[in-house]
Amino acid sequence: MTPPELEFLKSLTVLYVEDDPDIHARLDFFLKRHVGVLLVAHDGAEGARVWEERQPDIVITDILMPTMDGLAMTRQIRERDEEIPIIVTTAYSDEEFFIRSIDLGIDRYVLKPTDPATLHRALTHCARSLWRRREKETADRYVRFVLDIQPSPLLVTGKGQLEYINRAFLNYLGFPSREDFLASGIALESLMQTRTGLPLSGDGEAGGWIGSLLKAAREDPILFLRRPDQEDPLPIPFAITGNALPELEKHIFSFADVTHLEKEKQELEEKAFTDALTGICNRARLQVILNTELRRAHRHDLPLSVVMCDIDHFKKINDVYGHQAGDDVLRQMVGIMRVNLRAEDLLARWGGEEFMVVSPQSDLESTRLLAEKLRALVEKSHFPAVGQITCSFGVAEREPGDTIRILTERADKALYAAKTGGRNRVELQTRA
To answer: Is the N or the C terminus of the chain less surrounded, counting Cβ atoms within 10 Å?
Structure first.
């Protein structure tokens, strides 16, 4: 297994279901060394409940168990998730069992007595398949995002043919659908011309007009595009960008009207990097800023600290008062924190009810005081929708060689300590 895949395995949550306490104890210890989070259950009914609550990435289960056997649990899981990898550990050699398990789509079998090395091979096989599937899903999501959300005119080509033209492009051309455009018989390239006024031509270019479009995107990314319904067309200048998807043998071309390019860019960046609910930075923007600050702190040996904050019992707020009330709490808490931070501090939404403060040139003690101040302010505030709430805080300071992941993991562990230590408190990182 390659190092990235090993790292991926260590990020996964695995559910292990086994009723034999001796086997359970031995493999529990083994599995904890190789996966990110290990969830355990002692029969199929408990395993089904844990799966429902935690949604693990991989399931390992015995067959013969009290209350609900492994195949019944697997069937229940498969009704909700057809693709989750499932490994069965069994002493069965019954033909009917294998037929039933094949019908359920079991991914791997490990015969008992279970050899840890054999189980690890089965686990790594499932992790590798999961890794590849998620890589493909990520690529597919990116393509769908570009096709379905991109507000600028866009087209997709594959194997020398036009495959897709987006809604913005069709609107510009005056066609209600791609089918109507194709039925018109208009060659798209005939509507494009270079800066010199010449029509876009594939003459002499590998790949015809698409090859010419690729060359233009690389060398002189300004094309003039006219509308076919204009008798005296006045071409509008567009900046074109070509992106290759080599694994799919496709190219995506986007066209941006340069007369308002900066405005569109700012709007897209705001949407992409701002949390819609609270108006603060989202996690994507946080990663960019934190990376910049971390590099600066490393380069000049400056202090840099982060605070991870989580609203205590937030699920209960949503359950009791409703999600709208929960949203109001999030917005009000952000307002409290915003006005009590320095200008150079960054407040961002980490996800759900979790927030992060990046505090440049601030050491651990100074940042602890800041976190304690924020904790007290939240505790003393009145939230109209729910009354009083509290928050837990974890604080970590940059250390030499830290990456974003290492630094935030230490803050997250400190936050976890605050949660398990009683909530409504500030905990500091534990140093190695």
So the answer is: C
The single residue of 18, 293, 353, 397 carrying the catalytic annotation is 353
Residue 372 domain-assigned (yes or no): yes
DSSP, res 231: S
The total number of structural domains that make up the chain: 3
Which residue, among 109, 114, 87, 113, has the nearest Cα to 98 in the 3D structure?
Answer: 109
What are the DSSP calls for 9-35, one per residue? Answer: HTT-EEEEE---HHHHHHHHHHHHTTS
Full domain range(s) for residue 315: 274-428
Q: Residues 100, 8: one domain?
A: yes
Verify that 418 and 285 share a domain, yes or no: yes
Rounded to the nearest 10 degrees, the angle between the axes of helix 364-380 and helix 323-338 is: 130
Residue 206 has pLDDT above 60, yes or no: no
String of DSSP letters for 164-199: EE-HHHHHHHT-SSHHHHHHHT--GGGGEE-TTSPB
353 in catalytic set: yes
286, 332: one domain: yes
User: pTM here?
Assistant: 0.42
